[in-house]
């Protein structure tokens, strides 16, 4: 039987936090719980950075250090090593967004290749991650998803994107490092899905190296997985899937309304939760052909995963099942799971403070909009503060 009080253990959850770090976390989540404060803070931070005001030190010592590992790979090492003392692995996430030039895309590939080499011989870092649009223009993914023909120049540009994906997956296979490829907006995702599937076909023979991402707030994703599973069985390659609820809901609904097509997003939160949990169940029932990275901060979904693993006799340390949360969030899930032997990894964003601000702002906005998430964090932090005083 699964202990349903597992995630209440704050002494395990916050064992790595000093008293001052605990206070900082409490202060940050208290700030994030207020929508007006998030809006004002976001505007003020953006203004200060654009005006080159000397605020990077303040950002670094507060929100950046809580949610990010450092400004570069070496800077993240103390965090990586610290987490691994509690059995939690790290996924370095180069969180610099919105690049548009071929030089920037080539630089992004070099960064990921460097991280794979960095992971080599480090047990604490078995996984890397990148976004499709980190390797090529959004416009090209969208055009290909819409089935439109490329010009000769666009085809050449697309071939470079394919080459970047292949270079990363080939090195990852050679170094036995797993690659998570993030999901993005639905109107570019078909092209990304096809490209990632071709990488799975090439590199997921015998062992899963390449993982796509299913955003289960889309009602069509479980059907897509079933069809992919059928192809994989016939062609004898393994599927890797990171499953998440999703990150672009407002944008998706707004675009569907503006363009007069059916929204790809589930009608409500319950439908999304059901879709996530049904997808999780399908994967764990078919673990011989599908590996999963369960990317969630939802406690009920985590408990469901534990119950299903027990039901299907899946060992806690089976490498085909990983749990993942973001650094700086849901420590009560990550560290309590790791403490009893499950595979757990934290996404650790890094990059120059200025370049990582869009990521940090999104984190703050998401925490404000997700009902209950921030209050849960605050409640657990308050419990741990009280426990330490006693």
Please characterize this protein's 3D structure:
- The chain is built from 16 helices and eight strands.
- By secondary structure, it is of the alpha/beta class.
- The protein has an eight-stranded parallel barrel with strand order 1-2-3-4-5-6-7-8, surrounded by seven helices.
- Please list the strands of the largest sheet in the order they lie side by side: 1-2-3-4-5-6-7-8
Which class do the helix and strand fractions yield? alpha/beta
The radius of gyration is: 21 Å
- Pick out the low-confidence regions: none
How can the largest sheet be summarized? 8 strands, parallel, barrel
Instruction: Specify the helix fraction band.
Output: 55-70%
End-to-end Cα distance: 31 Å
Query: Overall mean pLDDT score?
Result: 93
Succession of helices and strands: HHHHHEHEHHEHEHEHHEHEHEHH
Give the strand content: 5-15%
Cα shape: globular
- Note the total helix count: 16
Annotation, overall tally of beta strands: 8
Which features characterize this protein?
single chain; 390 residues; alpha/beta; 8-stranded parallel beta barrel; 16 helices; 8 strands; 12% strand; globular
Brief overview:
The protein contains 16 helices and 8 strands. It is an alpha/beta fold. An 8-stranded parallel beta barrel has the order 1-2-3-4-5-6-7-8, surrounded by 7 helices.
